[in-house]
Design goal:
By secondary structure, the protein is α+β, with helices and mostly antiparallel strands. The chain has helices at residues 16-27, 39-51, 59-64, and strands at 5-6, 9-10, 35-37, 65-67. The strands form two sheets. It has a two-stranded antiparallel sheet with strand order 1-2. A two-stranded parallel sheet has the order 3-4.
């Protein structure tokens, strides 16, 4: 698996918009409690939500994302 965070920077191959859509889609079934991922990826996804003015409508999604070290190449749902 490709590491998506190196030296506190996201990989150029990390598709922020698609990953934001992915975590929102995961939440549609209503059963997701937590998503563990790299802290920098969480920060980037929060920035994406803010840029799209989606923070209020997807507050539950953002709250479920937990920053967790050593998750630069995968996430746990």
């Amino acid at each position: 698996a490709e590491v998506m965070v190196t030296n506190k920077k996201l990989s150029k191959n990390f598709d922020l918009e698609r990953n934001w859509e992915l975590v929102k889609t995961l939440h549609k079934n209503g059963k997701i409690q937590r998503i563990f991922m790299d802290p920098l990826i969480k920060k980037a996804l929060c920035g994406m939500a803010k840029a799209k003015d989606e923070v209020a409508v997807h507050e539950d999604v953002l709250r479920s994302i937990r920053p967790y070290p050593n998750h630069a190449d995968h996430m746990h749902v």
